[in-house]
Amino acid sequence: MTQHRKSIHGEWSSRLAFILAATGSAVGLGNIWKFPYITGENGGGAFVLVYLLCIALIGIPIMMAEILLGRRGRQSPINTMESLAEEAGRTPHWRLLGWAGVLGGFLILSYYSVIAGWALAYVVQTADGLFTGASAERVKTIFDDLVTNPGRLLFWHTLFMTMTMTVVARGVQSGLEQAVRFLMPTLFVLLVILVGYSMNTGAFAQGLDFLFTPDFHRLSWNSVLIAMGHAFFTLSLGMGAIMVYGSYLPKDASITQASFYIAGADTLVALMAGMVIFPIVFSNNLEPGAGPGLIFQTLPIAFGQMWGGAFFGTLFFVLLVFAAWTSSISLIEPAVAWLVENHSVSRVKASVVSGFVTWLVGVGTVLSFNKWSEVTFFGKTFFDLLDYITANIMLPLGGLAIAIFVAWLMKKRTAREELALPKGPGYSLWYFLIRYVSPAAVLIVFLNVIGVFKLG
Length: 456
Ligand code: PHE
What we know:
The chain is mainly alpha-helical. It has one domain: Orthogonal Bundle (Hydantoin permease), CATH 1.10.4160. It is about 75% helix and about 0% strand. It contains 18 helices and no strands. Helix 9 crosses helix 12. The longest helix is centred in the C-terminal third of the chain and has 35 residues. It is globular, with a radius of gyration of 21 Å. It binds phenylalanine. The site of phenylalanine (PHE) has 15 residues, from helix 1, helix 2, helix 10 and helix 14.
């Protein structure tokens, strides 16, 4: 057995360290910023239901597959895919899957960092008491003032990229564990406090109804694609982030158990964010489909009214920045790990180079909210297009390729060995989902959006 490679980048100190890091990757802007706004844009309940189904039937099985590939390969996703393909007697061109992931990571991080920059700006604005007693209109004006100012956006984007690359340069293991161990419980407590606030807005029931009562008339195939794309995005799947974290996972850790923890924590945070936002939206007569600015136009209203709002608000945005930080690190780690492996550059150099490229692409997103807001491709701004292509096309395609590789091309024994599941219903269910259900679901959604194939 040649398979017990070691990663040259080191290993997590424990199973828990991996779970914390992977949860740090999964829980981020996707849960708190993106989930509420796309739920608002796509009509609520039915969209949420599809999203939850995608997490359970596609997300968790593919997460297990992606982690097992990483742990088996023990290298950057590019080299992992190449060596596992060779081990399975397949073409080494499977490395292209790793390349697609690296590209996806760059593109996602380029706009992710701009949005994380908004959160940084909000830390300062909330601490300054800017929102204290502010009306909904005033809160909206403050948001518009920020995003229409390219200089300010660029400043915060640059700061966030610098923060990310500093951690990546030092190696992702050090520091991340402590950060997440403290961050997750605090974020959770804060969300509980905010749910408490929302319960008293007078529109809590309306908010829950919007989130959890499905109305299928409001669901288009494009919405189904967005829900599915978001299941990949929020779980960090399909681009090698979870694969590269899996490559630092000790041999004795249970991949199945870890996947359930990560997906469970991630889903809980997203649903709580929804339960906080929508009652605020409805009690202030705001528009659920307001778009990417939704949380920045709603939460400050709550912080402006509640007792200790400046304190809780500042803490909230600090935690949001941390959550984004632990995700952004994993977006760039596949690229950095590859540069270190194949070009024997130092982590520092690899981080500077890849960070700079990402930062540069991010300038496009900065401008798409102001100077280029009228410049559209297929009716989408630069930011919208980048987000649509990466989350809804690249990640599901990456996930599809992972499912096909693990369930159809790799030796069955290899997968079973890595998962270390006893033969039984659990293993059979996973195998059935990854072999048939996940790939078929991704294909059906794609085909319907393309309109080749209509299911009524
Ligand atoms: N999962 C992260 C979030 O929800 C985003 C992310 C996507 C991170 C893909 C890594 C890879 O914010």
